[in-house]
Structure formats: C-alpha cells, structure tokens
C-alpha cells in the first residue's frame, strides 16, 4: 500500500510538472535547462520528491538535482513507453542516484507532439524506511489484537466444543444423518420441545397422528398442538410420564414424556405417542366374540331348562301340555332358524343373529327377524370384525333400550337388493329425545351411565364411514328407535 501511494504521488507530480506552461515552452528555447531546471527544483522541494528529471526525446537531461549531470543522458532505460507510446506510468529502475520508484509522463507541445519526458522519483531505500516506520507503528496494536483474538478464539472454541459435547464437525454430520434415519424408522410418534414447550423436532409418525404438516407445527407451542395434555406444567416441573392414555383426534393414544436435563436444569422434553386405536378395536371385537360365546352358552342353558320342564311334564303325565310346549318352541325355532339359515347366507351374520337370539331369550325380550329378510354373502372387503362391531353394537343398544319395557321387542331386517347391503334394527323402547339424537354417535355420550358408556355407537359410525357407508336413525320418545345401515357392495376406489 505504501509503494502504491508513493508511486501514485510520483505519477501525479510528474503529470502536474508536464502541464506547467513554462516547462512546455522551455523545450522550444535555445537553452531549455535555463528555464526548466529552476522550476523543476522548486517543484521537487515543494513535493518532497527525491528527484525531478526532465529530458528531451533523446533522453538528454534538462533538469536534475545534481547540476553536473545536466546535458547528459537519462539512466534507467524506462522512457520508451512515455516517449514513443505517450503513456503515463509508474516504473521501478536504477538511475544515477540508485534504485528508485518513478512516475513517468510525456511532455506535449501545443501542436500535440511529444517533446520530452518528466520523471519524478523516490528512492527505494526511503520507501523501505517509510514502510518500516509504518510497521513499527502497527506492531503493538497488531500484537494486542492478535493476543486478544487468540484468547477470544480459544474461549470461543472451548465454549463451542462444550456445546457440541466435544464432537468434531464430521461426527456431528454423521449423528444428524443417523438421527433422521432413526426418527423415520420409528413407528411411534416423536416430538421434541424446548424448556418453553415449543416444538423443535417432529417425525413423520407424529405428523400423521396430528393430521398436519411438520412445518406448520414447527416452533409452535405444544399446548396449542395438543391442548388435551397438561404438558407445559409437566415440562416445567421436569415430571416423567409413563403410559398415560389420552384421546387425540378421536384416537386412543398412549403417551410418554421424558424431560431433558442439562446441568440439573430442564432444557426440554421428548414426547412419544403410540396409537392404541387399532389395538382397542381388536380388544373390543374380541369382547364382542366373547359376548356371543356367553350368549350361546346362555341359550344352551335356557334350552336345558326347557328340557327339564318337558321331562317333568312327561313324568307327571301331562302329555298334552308337553306336546303344546314342544310345538310352540319348534315353531319359533323353525321360523327363526329358517330365516337365519335359508335366507341369510353370510356365516358371520348368522353367528351374530344366533347369539343375539340367545341373549334376548335370556333377557325375556322378543327378538324377531323379519320374514322378508334375505342376504347373500358379504363382499370380501368387509371384514367379519366390521360386521361384529356394527350389528353387535346396534342390536345390543336396541336390547338395552327395551329391558325396562313391557313386552320389549327388537326387530331385525336385512336385504341386499340394489347397490347396498341394508340392515334395519328397530325397538319399542323409550326412544331418544330430539336434543340427544344428533349426539348419540359422539364419543362418551350416552343416555345411560356416562362413565362406562358412550363408545359403542361412535365405533359403529366410524366403522361404517370407513366402509363408505352411512347410518340413519329415527326415534320418538316412548315409541322406540329405528337404526338403518347402508353399506356399499363394492369398495370405493381410492383417489389421490
């Protein structure tokens, strides 16, 4: 920088001297040195230059700090660019005074011809002395800055390594990739939050569970995303939660939370979620199957009791009464069984109806299957568990509705005429009020015991909707209720 500044200064001085009118006119005089030398020396003293040498096109000096060298050839061999090409430039050469940095520019006369050259120079040794002086001025501040920077760098490095737990960058990159792979492979939903309960990380399983997009949840308070859970207070207190069951978006979830500690302070928490809905549905279905088994056992017990009654009648000689009882039972069984076995072909529905007939018999409730009922085998896409959930819960709901009703009756009808399977379950129970009829399919809503009920009809509606079907209900207080179910025979095609 010092050399560039001095070279630029030399060039500007040379250009200024070359444009002095007296200098330009002096070249046309008989003794140019008499006019040019005094002006050049005065300018040298004013600018502090080591020398200002002016020569003609032949390189003959008209000015020089040493008057004995006037009239002699200029030394250095760097005038051609100025005299021939008319250029102004900075050069480094060794002249009569020693190595120097020079500013060179041509001298033009008023006709536009080059008549000479101006060379303004500073000695290299003086330039080096100036540079050394500047370096000395910079050494102390530089050392101080270097020392402070070194100390600061060491402290910053130590702090960063502490934050990164001593890992090198390539190791951090590897851990980041492994973390993403692990989060994608985990079936459970995972969410990481900071000490303020703000979401910092979420995997795809959690995204599906919350029915949204990761970007939409990122940097959002967990209390807004999962208002069902008192997470803010749990995170603040650093409490551990294990296998807590909650309901999120109508799904049964098992929730766990482990706080993250750093230097004995809570810095956040990791939350995991397991969807228990499918497992609960399987458990409920198994419960239905167990119920049917018990109902069939009850039916067997009921018929055993009737056989004992017949045996007693025969032993007492009441033959006519025994025959009448047999005929009555035979007629009822034949009618019901004829419809079940001859008009309904699906084995699952047959099993459901036989179980419910036994349960109704035990509860002293009339369970009637409409004579015009008919049904072929259900489509393959309709699972037996779907039928158990739908018909089992609807019929049980009807049986419960008529338990306290005199001459309680439940009627069942089915048909597959048209594009849908249609099931109808009617009862003459207490009915459902208008204010409640729109809420009977909501979870936890029940007209009976609200602590243990309120899930059956909700599961029915969800199962039917999953099959792209629908359910309708008509009810009047003190008159009874009719549930009508429509399930398509063909599975709807998925789009998207």
From TrEMBL:
Keywords: ATP-binding, Cell membrane, Kinase, Membrane, Nucleotide-binding, Phosphoprotein, Transferase, Transmembrane, Transmembrane helix, Two-component regulatory system. SMART domains: HATPase_c, PAS. It is a multi-pass membrane protein. SUPFAM superfamilies: ATPase domain of HSP90 chaperone/DNA topoisomerase II/histidine kinase, PYP-like sensor domain (PAS domain), Sensory domain-like, Sporulation response regulatory protein Spo0B. InterPro entries: HATPase_C_sf, HATPase_dom, His_kinase_dom, PAS, PAS-like_dom_sf, PAS_fold, sCache_3, Sensor-like_sf. It is an enzyme of class 2 (transferase). It is found in: Cell membrane. Its EC number is 2.7.13.3. GO terms for molecular function: ATP binding. Signal peptide: none annotated. The chain crosses the membrane at residues 138-157. The keyword Transferase applies. Residues 298-491 form the Histidine kinase domain. It catalyses: ATP + protein L-histidine = ADP + protein N-phospho-L-histidine. PROSITE patterns: HIS_KIN. PANTHER family: SENSOR PROTEIN CITS, TWO-COMPONENT HISTIDINE KINASE. This is histidine kinase. It comes from Oceanobacillus aidingensis. The lineage of its organism: Bacteria, Bacillati, Bacillota, Bacilli, Bacillales.
């Amino acid at each position: 920088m010092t050399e560039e500044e001095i070279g630029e200064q030399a060039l500007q001085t040379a250009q200024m001297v070359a444009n002095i009118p007296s200098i330009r006119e002096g070249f046309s005089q008989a003794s140019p040195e008499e006019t040019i030398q005094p002006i050049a020396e005065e300018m040298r003293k004013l600018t502090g230059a080591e020398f200002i040498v002016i020569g003609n096109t032949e390189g003959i000096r008209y000015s020089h700090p040493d008057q004995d060298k006037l009239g002699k050839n200029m030394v250095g061999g760097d005038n051609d660019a100025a005299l021939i090409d008319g250029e102004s430039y900075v050069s480094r050469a060794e002249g009569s005074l020693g190595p120097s940095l020079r500013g060179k520019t041509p001298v033009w006369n008023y006709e536009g011809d080059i008549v000479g050259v101006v060379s303004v120079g500073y000695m290299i040794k003086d330039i080096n002395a100036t540079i050394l002086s500047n370096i000395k001025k910079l050494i102390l501040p530089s050392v101080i800055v270097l020392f402070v920077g070194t100390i600061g760098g060491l402290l910053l490095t130590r702090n960063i390594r502490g934050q990164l737990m001593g890992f090198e960058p390539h190791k951090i990159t590897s851990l980041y990739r492994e973390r993403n792979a692990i989060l994608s492979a985990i079936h459970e939903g995972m969410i990481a939050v900071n000490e303020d309960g703000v979401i910092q990380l979420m995997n795809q399983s959690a995204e599906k569970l919350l029915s949204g997009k990761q970007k939409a949840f990122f940097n959002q308070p967990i209390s807004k995303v999962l208002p069902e859970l008192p997470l803010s207070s749990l995170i603040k207190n650093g409490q551990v939660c294990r296998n807590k069951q909650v309901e999120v978006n109508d799904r049964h979830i098992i929730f766990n939370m482990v706080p993250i500690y750093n230097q004995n302070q809570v810095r956040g928490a990791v939350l995991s979620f397991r969807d228990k809905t499918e497992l609960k549905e399987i458990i409920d279905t198994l419960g239905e199957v167990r119920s049917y088994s018990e109902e069939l056992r009850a039916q067997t017990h009921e018929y055993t009791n009737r056989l004992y009654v017949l045996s007693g009648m025969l032993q007492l000689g009441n033959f006519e009464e025994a025959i009448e009882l047999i005929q009555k039972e035979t007629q009822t069984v034949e009618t019901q069984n004829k419809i079940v076995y001859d008009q309904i072909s699906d084995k699952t529905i047959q099993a459901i109806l036989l179980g419910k007939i036994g349960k109704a018999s035990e509860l002293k409730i009339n369970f009637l299957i409409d004579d015009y009922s008919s049904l072929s085998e259900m489509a393959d896409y309709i699972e037996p568990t779907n039928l158990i959930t739908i018909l089992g819960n609807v019929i049980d709901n009807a049986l419960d509705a008529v338990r306290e009703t005199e001459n309680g009756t439940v009627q069942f009808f089915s048909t597959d005429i048209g594009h849908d399977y249609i099931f109808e379950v009617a009862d003459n129970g207490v009915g459902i009020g208008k204010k409640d009829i729109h809420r009977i399919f909501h979870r936890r809503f029940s007209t009976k015991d609200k602590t243990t009920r309120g899930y059956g009809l909700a599961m029915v509606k969800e199962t039917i909707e999953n099959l792209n079907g629908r359910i309708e209900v008509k009810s009047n207080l003190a008159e009874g209720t009719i549930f009508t179910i429509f399930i398509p025979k063909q599975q709807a095609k998925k789009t998207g």
